[in-house]
């Protein structure tokens, strides 16, 4: 298929280099394969042509992703892998991590990662990859998982929520975290969350204390309501209402 769309030299370069190094290659790797056959200037010209024709996507200077006919001109790499690729000592957090854990379903145009080094934002294919530098003591709470067959580092749901409060402490961020804690209270690992909070600063602990207190109150109210509904179902409507009236201090329930 490639030979019908590319020159013989272009197809030969792509096939040989990808066979040895995979679908992410560098110019130096191409030189390593073809240094005896082609001059540096000639190989640069061929690879520039491949970029223009969509067979290579430039990830950074001298580094490329090899596409195929189904995604010509675009990578097929996950945003998690790309975020890790640009900054090795980093993990994806905030909304994109919550999306991985099934807690966020909106399309994101910015992927935020925590990193041990300062790095400027990178834009690739309309997605902005932003990096927040953190201290060693806060660089934890991530997992190495496979996404599209590649190992990536993604924050646990609990750490992603904490990171949002610690590094993006706006009213909107606090509201979103509160909403996620309320909606996914039973899915969250509360022991893990408590362990992480013990390593967080006082402000983060205070904000989460308020959020968790409210979540527990709502949980207790829901259990109480479910208990009352159970009384009605077991005792029958008339007797159930009488018992509920006694339980609620005689206030009763309107017929």
Strand order of the largest sheet: 4-5-7-6
β-strand percent reads 15-25%
What sequence of helices (H) and strands (E) makes up the elements? HHEHHEEHEHEEEEEHHHHH
Shape: elongated
pLDDT < 50 runs, ≥5 residues: 251-255
The biggest beta sheet reads: 4 strands, mixed
Number of domains: 2
Tell me the distance between the termini: 75 Å
Q: How does the helix and strand content classify structurally?
A: alpha+beta
Please give the count of helices. Answer: 11
Regarding quaternary structure, how should these chains be classified?
single chain
**Helical residue percent band:** 40-55%
Give the C-alpha Rg. Answer: 27 Å
Q: How much is the average pLDDT?
A: 88
| Record field, number of beta strands | 9
Question: Could you characterize the architecture of this molecule?
Answer:
There is one protein chain. The chain is an alpha+beta fold. The chain folds into two domains: 2-71, Arc Repressor Mutant, subunit A; 79-214, no CATH class. The protein has helices at residues 2-5, 8-21, 27-34, 40-52, 79-86, 94-100, 157-167, 171-183, 190-198, 202-235, 237-247, and strands at residues 24-26, 56-60, 63-66, 90-92, 110-115, 122-124, 127-133, 142-147, 150-155. Strand 8 and strand 9 (150-155) form a beta hairpin. Residues 251-255 have low confidence and may be disordered.
